[in-house]
Amino acid sequence: MAEHRNRWNWEVSGFEPRKSSASVEPEEHRVAAPLVRRYSISAASVLSGENSDFSKQALASKLQRLKDKVKVAKEDYLELRQEASDLQDYSNAKLDRVTRYLGVLAEKTRKLDQVALETEARISPLINEKKRLFNDLLTAKGSIMVFCRARPLFEDEGPSIVEFPDDCTIRVNTCDDSIANPKKDFEFDRIFGPHVGQAELFSDVQPFVQSALDGYNVSIFAYGQTRSGKTHTMEGSSHDRGLYARCFEELFDLANSDSTYTSQFNFSVTVFQLYNEQISDLLSESESSLQKICMGSAESFIELVQEKVDNPLDFSRVLKAAFQSRGNDTSKFNVSHLIITIHIYYHNLISGENLYSKLSLVDLAGSDGLITEDDSGERVTDLLHVMKSLSALGDVLSSLTSRKDVIPYENSMLTTLLADSLGGSSKTLMILNVCPNAANLSETLSSLNFCARARNATLSLGNRDTIKKWRDVANDARKELYEKEKEIQDLKQEVLGLKQALQEANDQCVLLYNEVQKAWKVSFTLQSDLKSENIMLLDKHKIEKEQNAQLRNQVAQLLQMEQEQKLQMQQRDSTIETLQAKIKSMESQLNKALHSTEASSKYGSEAGPGVSSIPKATADGMDSSSVTKKLEEELKKRDALIERLHEENEKLFDRLTEKASLAGSPQVSSPLSKGTTNSQSRDMGRNDNNNKGRSMDVVPSELVADKSDGTVALVKSGSDKVKSTPAGEYLTAALNDFDPEQYDSLAAISDGANKLLMLVLAAVIKAGASREHEILAEIRAAVFSFIRKMEPKRVMDTMLVSRVRILYIRSLLARSPELQSIKVSPVECFLEKANTGRSRSSSRGNSPGRSPVRYADEQIQGFKVNIKPEKKSKLSSVVLRMRGIDQDTWRQQVTGGKLREIQEEAKSFAIGNRALAALFVHTPAGELQRQIRSWLAESFEFLSVTGDDASGGSTGQLELLSTAIMDGWMAGLGAALPPNTDALGQLLSEYAKRVYSSQLQHLKDIAGTLSTEEAEDATQVGKLRSALESVDHKRRKILQQMRSDVALLTLEDGGSPIHNPSTAAEDARLASLISLDGILKQVKDIVRQSSVNTLSKTKKKAMLSSLDELAERMPSLLEIDHPCAQRQIVDARRVVESIPEEDDQLHELVHYRKSPADLGSSTETDVAQWNVLQFNTGSTTPFIIKCGANSNSELVIKADAHVQEPKGGEIVRVVPRPSVLENKSLEEMKQVFFQLPEALSLLALARTEDGTRARYSRLYRTLAMKVPSLRDLVGELEKGGVLKDVRS
């Protein structure tokens, strides 16, 4: 049964299950049996076989335990999955019930909405009727109304010349003694004296605001001379606001009272100033994203910024911004008009009605028309413009009140812009502001006459005789309006009831929705918890699977090594048998020779031959002894090989068991599992090299970082991130967002793509040489992704692509020393003179003509330049002169055609030519063109500049030819032939791969040097580990950048692979250093704990066993790290063994009997960290006990000496172990507890001795488990039976 239970059942291809250890062992025994009988040297092999069998059984038991853990994990996973399914069913059922209830509520809500809509439809005609009646009432009073307001007198202005007989009459004392009645009366619609405030004034203005909200255009003007109170009437003050704020607040309040969920009001504001007939928009300096509106007639209109306002605060903010934009020039204010227009938009969802109206509030310029001699020309111009606009306004108002057919709106910009608010169904209110002092009498009379002219022409309410008639009409209209309003109020009450019912339904829906949300949250939380647990189990299962796979692979390697060793042993055994046969034959020959010697001794005559035979036998004996020695040497080698094989098997087994038992421990790193056999062989080779006496100082991590940074051109450190700039962010977004599908034609796509490439070049040029690398690095990924995306469409200008590629390659060259040593062939290798016998057609048929030239490892083709001298004849010159054609012009035309042909041939020659791309990259453009010109001058003598030809056409021809060749090559190098990219792109990919390979190799060399260094102590181990981790981090960073570099061409794109050197040996050394670091830390902790005068037997035994466990973990280290670990463990063992030991109880009593002063002084300062526990005993105040551990690993507590004492009476005591209370009576226990804090004794004492011991054991365990450093001690005490409970 045991054999069947330990049988392996892994299903690995090419690996059969192990039948039994006995099936392999007898073969070895049969082969080695003769050697045991003859030489007695194979006992080690037998012992090694037993060890191997034992290690395999232990490995099988470990694997069985792993399988049991996997089985338990699977069962837990199935239980969790079933629980998740049950919870899902429960949540689905509850959601179905909630959904049905929500459906019922939705039906009720729909019915309430339908009733509300029907009610709204019934109210809408009544509201419209109300608006009509109200408009008729205002129209009956007059579409143009004039109010007059007199400001209070100032202290130095003298007596008032204005009187107020009634609410509609103002009387002015003209102070003219020549007439009988110097007082003159003026009648207006309403008169406001100096005592009238802003609120009373607005009460008469409010009907106009209501009319504007009803959908009619309304304009309110403030007219009067300077300092008459116009601006105060419109703006007001902080404590008494003017018409601006009051009108908008009234609009806002009326809109809120009239709005329902089926109708909505929106408001926006425009503010502008009219100065010298010029418009100045005071909101244009705000955000540019605001909407604009056109004002004025179709022939003359202006576009103004309108800002949406949702509340009075927004309106005040807009006005404040407009006033700030207007400035502080008061002289300009007096001669300019300020127009504030509130635009009102109304929309009704039921009737689909859309209304637009506006309320214009105009603060007119001062009506001072007197021009003095001291006024400047600019002042005179301003006054003339003001007089003109005010006169035009008076003409318009007079024409409207007189009901003339033609209204002169176009006479002024003011009347033109406000034409839709003057006349027709609109309402106009003129508020006249007058000064009551005698100094301004003329201006006051002028203003009164101006407004009287506008009002007296009114036909409706101009005479007192008809006022009674119109009052009766108004009373009738008010009665009808009151009845309508009462009916509307009843309907509104009904709507409010429906709204309240709807609100209650909505509240129920909200409550139900909140419950649904809570249910969803609970369900989601449970699902997320189950999902996370499922993921954890899957990860654990995956890790165990990987561990099992690694174990299988390593066991397979182990068995393969054993098979190879067996084959070697069989070969050596066959050799030994052959040698044994030779020895037997030689012994038989020796015996024969001895017999023949004895026989021949009888005959003296045969002495010669006998003597000769004896040396021969002796020589044979000497040969046999040498053979025997060789045989023994071979056997010793075989035994040594077997021993080393078993040692390697033991190391492998220890690593596997340690990894299986300590999964996730930082002491064993993952690189150790990447082929144990290879790493061990490398380790043995490295140890042989180290044993030869090679030693170097440990290289710190800072030095490694400096070395590696010397050649890393493409990789930057974490803190050296690419800086972002506005230009870079804009270009990156533009390149990434470019979508060819948005364009109608290829020409449009080409235009957009080329513009983006030109923007890239312009940004690099503008950045300058100092920031060129930064901008290129910032947009690198976007540029190459864009080129890769657009290459198949063939719409980009290839010369632009070439210029962009060259910028990036040269930037890479400037930052990569390994690329700066590349040599390229001169330009003469790429140019070739065509055969003179070849015609143009043949050269074009074979274009471009190429001849092979070797360059490095690839074939360089020469570009054939086909140029022939022009043949001049007298006849052609005469013909051209007769036709009137200039010879130079004719030559230029021919040369132009030839230049285009050469440029096309050069482009075809350059496509895919990486050698030519390298020449362009490593040679400046000006130098390259100069070399081409020199070659052309040397190859074509008829183009050379000699004598006085310098001013002729040969120099121009050289320049044009070299430019054509350069342009053709540049265009060809940027042209791609899908699926391959352009030549410059291939060159950039090759250079980048070369830089990456160089960096990886450099880091490999540094890591190789570090991995061969031997560490002497923990400090050097930490430095070596840090250095290797730093190098490994840089290597991983380079590999990550390689994977994300869009400029690299993969193997699928035609690129070559990057050489990535293996770092298995360095990874193995890093894993070994990590394990060694953990061992040294534990040794250091043991040494720290042993810095006492005496130790208890249990503590000393535990420390020595810990050192033994650390020594057993040494096989997991590499050979190079064994001396350091061995030295530290031996030193620690020597220190622990040198400390005297005491009996446990005696040790506890000695420490317990120390004086309280000693305990308080030593333990408190020795405790590194206090942990607080609170014990609730049912009383008002709980017990607070602080616990910790001193350097002797003893439990130390700090608490109040007496429970009833206030804070501040804390004492520190060492708590004795529970073994101190054995065989003590209850009184003796109380004496022991007397030295401890009262809270501890109250918690520990019971009625009996056994109960007290049990309570104290539990209390000691609770306190000790709170201290992390004492948890191991608790485990040891539990194993020893010291912490026992009477209940058990």
UniProtKB/TrEMBL annotation:
The keyword Electron transport does not apply. Residues 143-457 form the Kinesin motor domain. ATP binds at residues 224-231. Keywords: ATP-binding, Coiled coil, Motor protein, Nucleotide-binding. Residues 56-90, 467-508 form a coiled coil. InterPro entries: Kinesin-like_fam, Kinesin_motor_dom, Kinesin_motor_dom_sf, P-loop_NTPase. It comes from the Eukaryota. The keyword ATP-binding applies. Residues 664-682 have a biased composition (Polar residues). This is Kinesin motor domain-containing protein. It comes from Hevea brasiliensis. The lineage of its organism: Eukaryota, Viridiplantae, Streptophyta, Embryophyta, Tracheophyta.
